[in-house]
Amino acid sequence: MKTKIFLNLAVKDLDKAVSFYNKLGFSTDPKFTNEKGACLVIDENIFVMLLVEEFYQTFTKKQICDATKSSEALMAISVDSREQVDEMLEKAIKAGGTDYDQANDYGWMYQKTFLDIDGHHWEVFFMDESQIPEM
């Protein structure tokens, strides 16, 4: 079996969070979805588990941070073009997210940042590895 990544995020309102990510183009996997959590498919081996805060808390003894005030992690996702970076940011804003920071254009990499409806920090980027300057 190939390695899979499951990113787990605490959310306040599961239905609203699922709707947000569906509007970004991620599908919901019903096998791993119920009233406590939902599995969003980013790619065949990359998933986001949205867990209501009470359920998320059963997996950790640590306090859940308020992602609108504290940084918990920076999630970064690659796309196939600069245009897709812009499209993803537009989708995130239309779905209720926030344009968080200015775009970064390094020539070989183009990146924009948004916060989801719970304040989780996402970076969307396109990278042309053939254009990376030699060090």
Key terms:
135 residues, alpha/beta, 2,3-Dihydroxybiphenyl 1,2-Dioxygenase, domain 1, 2 domains, 4-stranded mixed β-sheet, 8 strands
Protein described:
The chain is α/β, with parallel strands linked by helices and 135 residues long. It folds into 2 domains: 1-58, 2,3-Dihydroxybiphenyl 1,2-Dioxygenase, domain 1; 66-135, 2,3-Dihydroxybiphenyl 1,2-Dioxygenase, domain 1, CATH 3.10.180. Helices cover 20% and strands 38% of the residues. The chain has helices at 14-23, 53-56, 82-94; strands at 5-11, 27-29, 37-43, 46-52, 74-78, 98-105, 109-115, 121-127. Strands 1-4-3-2 form a 4-stranded mixed sheet.
Quote the average pLDDT.
95
Percent helix among the residues? Answer: 10-25%
Number of helices: 3
| Total number of domains | 2
Short description:
By secondary structure, the chain is α/β, with parallel strands linked by helices. The protein is built from three helices and eight strands, in the order βαβββαβαβββ. The longest helix has 13 residues.
